[in-house]
User: Fold this.
Amino acid sequence: MDQYYNFDLSMQEIAENVGISKQGVHDFIKRSEHTLNSTEDKLKLLERQNNMQVDLKKLYKQIDDICHNQNDHPAYKSLFAIKEELENIINEYTGG
Assistant:
């Protein structure tokens, strides 16, 4: 799977690297894809991650709006720090 998807090797190249037939590589990739999709259907990890990203970005936007409107007020310094930490979390988990 790694060689096929991440390194963009052909099934023939993988077969030669691993020492099995091209059909064996094809079968393995198809079984692996089925297992991954089946697991995702049960666990909903991607869906949960996407929902979390959307919620975090909404929260960040709300805090950002408050900070822009009240950046002189001392009480908002703590909120600004929270905004920066939230931005770090978003960047860490979403890659940007």
Remarks:
- The radius of gyration is 22 Å.
